[in-house]
Amino acid sequence: xxxxxxxxxxxxxxxxxxxxxxxxxxxxxxxxxxxxxxxxxxxxxxxxxxxxxxxxxxxxxxxxxxxxxxxxxxxxxxxxxxxxxxxxxxxxxxxxxxxxxxxxxxxxxxxxxxxxxxxxxxxxxxxxxxxxxxxxxxxxxxxxxxxxxxxxxxxxxxxxxxxxxxxxxxxxxxxxxxxxxxxxxxxxxxxxxxxxxxxxxxxxxxxxxxxxxxxxxxxxxxxxxxxxxxxxxxxxxxxxxxxxxxxxxxxxxxxxxxxxxxxxxxxxxxxxxxxxxxxxxxxxxxxxxxxxxxxxxxxxxxxxxxxxxxxxxxxxxxxxxx
Length: 322
Known about the structure:
Layout: H1 5-9, E1 11-13, E2 19-21, E3 40-48, E4 53-60, H2 61-64, E5 72-78, H3 91-104, E6 107-111, H4 123-140, H5 146-151, E7 152-162, H6 164-176, E8 186-192, H7 203-207, H8 216-226, E9 256-261, H9 267-279, E10 284-289, H10 301-321
Parallel strand pairs: 5-6, 5-7, 7-8, 8-9, 9-10
Antiparallel strand pairs: 1-2, 3-4, 4-6
């Protein structure tokens, strides 16, 4: 584990404020046409042409050959990127999304959003909201994207994100409470090890400062590059426990799932966040893993499989109670 956050992220900061990103993670192309044995199909579509963002839509192959007329839920997924990395079409995210679509029997809309510092917050929140409105538009447009239009149930949409993607779920869900989205309904918000911060160090940050996936120095750099210019880590985008414009909308949130791991340096913040949700009388489920590090699903296949099962169980329970 390097003590240099630039080396950890494999980036260089250019004089014009942009980053050069040296990390080259394996990528997988979408597979919109079924081959024998393909459990899931996927296709890439434009989200916002002006912002050069896209979505990759996944659907279980058996659903396309089914004539049962039953619509399936839609999961809008914000992959992790530490705000600054390019991760949308990597093999890892593709496999996560495919597994989620097949195991849950859902349409998954994996969102490419803009990255910092070229685009600082709240640009990512705008992209998150773009994806929700895009799903609604496709479902209601007679010429909209066929998988969503013909097989998706927009009254059963779930927001899901890991790390900074979990942060995006929270702020997108807050924004959605003030919008007229019917007939689209956000039925649940799934935040896996959501990325929050603050100026005052927590015990878990100090104890796990050398986390293999997100050491403390890397956290600090990620926030420095992503927060609005001149803001520190007590800005509400990073530390939603402080009072801000978002506070009054928290009580309007729907059902939430917060997933935590003991070894995550962010766990103290996640627990404080969950407590805040409960204090605002948000229906909140917290799932705690006694082991693990930040973003453990990236390096531990067993945990990745368990994450999908947790999400599936949350969705099934949410729909049984609706």
